[in-house]
Amino acid sequence: MKVVADFCLIPLGVGTSLTKYVAIVQQTLQASPHIKYLMHSCGTNIEGEWDHVMEAIKSCHTSLHTRHAVPRIHTTVRIGTRIDKDSSIQEKIDRVKSELESSSSSS
Amino acid sequence: MKVVADFCLIPLGVGTSLTKYVAIVQQTLQASPHIKYLMHSCGTNIEGEWDHVMEAIKSCHTSLHTRHAVPRIHTTVRIGTRIDKDSSIQEKIDRVKSELESSSSSS
Amino acid sequence: MKVVADFCLIPLGVGTSLTKYVAIVQQTLQASPHIKYLMHSCGTNIEGEWDHVMEAIKSCHTSLHTRHAVPRIHTTVRIGTRIDKDSSIQEKIDRVKSELESSSSSS
Amino acid sequence: MKVVADFCLIPLGVGTSLTKYVAIVQQTLQASPHIKYLMHSCGTNIEGEWDHVMEAIKSCHTSLHTRHAVPRIHTTVRIGTRIDKDSSIQEKIDRVKSELESSSSSS
């Protein structure tokens, strides 16, 4: 089952500056097999098979807890699955841009 | 790694009445091993080991897609993990109620 | 426009014990006009007109920042609106429970 | 109170193809005063004063319900506020990229 997801990981108990931990999340994703990902300002798009995506997010929690001493983590995930057609991070963006262009040229 | 999570699953392409599908989610959770769960008005609290919790949510997607013909699903999950102390659905509620009682009795 | 929502507020920069702040959120909601709310283990259901619900959540942020010195806050909200029929925290729960009972009695 | 938020709006009861509605959301944001926004594959970053951001999201719901006959909408929002320093969509991205570059050059 293919997933296009978006997640936002918040480390707790490490103060208010989270940049260092967001960078570790990106590095953990880079080391995760079989997924695509793209960071934005409030989280990260992630795409792949269900198990690979969930394993990657779990790796972020495990790494922060055990190797970077983060005592508590709060993560929110949006998960999209579908069986009617294939989907990807790039296709979803392309379809909306195409729709916006066609609606502006027709008006 | 223990998780206290909360998830809300939205089936798409099946109209606006979702009660039937929320009931299937509850039945799928009931059949899932090693987790505790508690439905509320906008989702379901779920507690257990990371892999058991994620496997239960995956089972909800799989069951709705394959056995109930739901073409598309959008799920949001809040995931909490911590290594500083143990946590559970019940303890989290109890701690806040206790805090509210002590602050009202001291005022 | 009526809203049935669910929100989870996470204070940052105040350590890992959040019970005190969750209690303040509940007290702020109690003082908010025209809403109903019900805490669960991973957030709070909240119901009312859009503006009243959003004003209540804003009050939680404002109170924590200005009166309780919380430097940073991360909140997630699920918002449901519909024009096909009325909805409420209680009705949503009742409908699923009724569905679960009728499906178990018919099997 | 300044907000950096991220929201994902899901129209229900309109089938599984949501591109048209995502485009309407983008057009509604474009017409909303005093906010900045940036679409990604699973939602939209949005930045501005609390009231302006919430008003823009409300406009998306109102427009879809009343002018595009969407019967039901499910929206998830991540909201970040802070009083310790200023923040923006662009700064958050820049800080992480800078951290990633410095950590790769030091290794």
TrEMBL record, chains A, B, C, D:
It comes from the Eukaryota. Pfam families: Thiamine_BP. GO terms for cellular component: cytosol. InterPro entries: MTH1187/YkoF-like, Thiamine_BP, UPF0045_domain. Residues 5-97 form the Thiamine-binding protein domain. Belongs to the UPF0045 family. NCBIfam families: MTH1187 family thiamine-binding protein. This is Thiamine-binding protein domain-containing protein. It comes from Spizellomyces punctatus (strain DAOM BR117).
